[in-house]
Structure formats: C-alpha cells, structure tokens
C-alpha cells in the first residue's frame, strides 16, 4: 500500500467515524432533549467552573445559587437580540453534540462526564486560542454566566457593592 493511499484512507475513516459518533444519540447517555430545551444540564456543568470561588460552600446554598443562576441565564437569553440568541443556541447545540464536541474540544466525551480540571483546561484553551471564534465563545459564555450570577442582589456583597440610595439622600 502506498503512503498516500494509507493517509487518505485514514483521514476518510476518521471523518466517517466522527460523523457516525455524531449520530450517537444523547438519549443513550440519559439526556432527554425535550426536557432540556433551555440547555440547563449543559450550563449546570459549566457554571461551577466559571463561578469557582464565588459559590457558597454549603451544598444546599450552592445548589440554590446554581438554580437561581440558571433561571437568570434563561431570562438573560430571552432578552438578547435574535442574532445573539441564534449564536448561543448554535454553540450550545455544538457542545451537546458529539461532532461539535470533537470540533470544539478535540474529544467526543460529553461535558457532563468530564471532571472539573478537564473543563477548566478546555475553557482555558478557548480563552487563549489563536482562533477568534474560540475566544469569542469563551467570552460570551463567561459574560453570560457572570452577568446572570451577579444580577442577583444577594451576590453583591461579595463585590463590596451596595445599592445606591438616592431617595434617602434627598430627604
């Protein structure tokens, strides 16, 4: 066999394998797409990575903060311009599909099956990527998470921020 034929066959085989893996349904790993139309499962995996150090240490408080942040993210997405919503939806769909994961992360392992350090490494590689698209994806996700988390007044104390009291100053 010639070297060129071997390389062409290997590339074609890899492409076929990647496409076949993409059609491997998320239902096989327990994800019901109809119940997760707002990508809460995906976001619940990424939130602890982005909010490391900001979340409470107590498990119940941490869980409640994550749920409130997921609700705030849904609200934030609902008021975004249509083109931004479409871009976010496309990113979420790619992160939930095997082929998209392969393209964006170099691995077909679902994000929910990765440990914290693997997710940190993935996001760090996006942040420092030479591709502007990857940097934009990182920044968009980070800004969405941070803005949604800190939009809740209960988190303002960590920023040493107090709501202005204009009415009290005018008395």
Automatic annotation (TrEMBL):
Protein name: TAT leader-containing periplasmic protein
Domain of life: Bacteria
């Amino acid at each position: 066999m010639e070297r060129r034929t071997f390389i062409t066959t290997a590339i074609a085989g890899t492409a076929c394998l990647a496409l076949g893996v993409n059609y491997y349904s998320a239902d096989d790993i327990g994800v019901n797409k109809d119940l997760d139309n707002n990508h809460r499962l995906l976001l619940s995996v990424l939130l602890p990575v982005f909010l490391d150090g900001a979340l409470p240490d107590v498990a119940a408080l941490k869980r409640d903060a994550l749920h409130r942040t997921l609700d705030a993210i849904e609200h934030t997405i609902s008021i975004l311009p249509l083109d931004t919503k479409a871009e976010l939806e496309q990113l979420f769909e790619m992160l939930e599909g095997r082929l998209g994961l392969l393209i964006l992360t170099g691995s077909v392992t679902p994000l929910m099956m990765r440990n914290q350090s693997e997710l940190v490494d993935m996001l760090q590689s996006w942040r420092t990527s030479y591709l502007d698209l990857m940097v934009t994806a990182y920044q968009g996700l980070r800004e969405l998470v941070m803005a949604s988390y800190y939009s809740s007044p209960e988190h303002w104390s960590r920023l040493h921020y107090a709501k202005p009291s204009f009415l009290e100053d005018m008395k």
